[in-house]
Write a structure and sequence with these properties.
Helix content is about 30%, strand content about 35%. The chain contains five helices and eight strands. Helix 1 crosses helix 3. The radius of gyration is 15 Å and the shape is globular. It starts with 6 loop residues before the first strand and ends with a strand.
């Protein structure tokens, strides 16, 4: 695939990010609470950093390293979050699932709906055998999402990430193509 495809669900469109998304990304993902709850979102998160990140995404896709989806509602077309398959390993056929949904759109089932589409894409289009995801063990929502998606809990990595509030344990879940 030369250009990243878009995915469609009942209520969502998952599309490539565009430069105009930068300000919304900063507003939704750039909060201190989001940085503490996620593994890779920094705080503060500047508009310049968001623009630089967006500009890097087409290369990451073409290189086969990652696929980044902007999650938008189909009715209002608002950007509400991000789903990523990253650290794609074509030799071992696995990738890491990472995501966030902005606070105003949480607890509406959008994360589950988007994740199902991204997982299907990973197994069917990218021909992955294994999709895994990490979560900060003190954050219950990501673990609940992974359980809903039939990912299996594999364990806890002690003090695997450092956040402003200190070292945090990471949990890991995974799902295989034939699960």
């Amino acid at each position: 695939m030369r250009y990243q495809p878009s995915l469609q669900t009942e209520r969502l469109r998952l599309r490539p990010f565009v430069a105009d998304d930068a300000a919304t990304i900063v507003a939704l993902a750039g909060t201190e609470a989001m940085a503490e709850a996620t593994i890779s979102i920094p705080h503060p998160y500047s508009l310049t950093a968001a623009k630089t990140w967006i500009a890097s995404l087409p290369h990451m896709f073409r290189s086969g390293l990652a696929v980044h989806f902007a999650v938008c509602t189909t009715d209002s077309k608002d950007l509400i979050g991000c789903f990523i398959l990253k650290n794609i390993d074509n030799i071992h056929q696995h990738a890491e699932l990472e995501c966030w949904i902005g606070k105003p759109w949480q607890n509406r089932g959008y994360a589950t709906e988007a994740a199902k589409a991204v997982i299907v894409f990973g197994f069917e289009q990218l021909k992955l055998n294994r999709i895994y995801g990490y979560y900060i063990s003190t954050e219950p929502q990501p673990a609940k999402l992974m359980e809903k998606l039939n990912l299996q809990h594999e364990g806890i990595m002690r003090q695997a990430v450092r956040k402003k509030s200190g070292y945090k344990d990471l949990g890991v879940f995974s799902r295989l193509a034939d699960d």
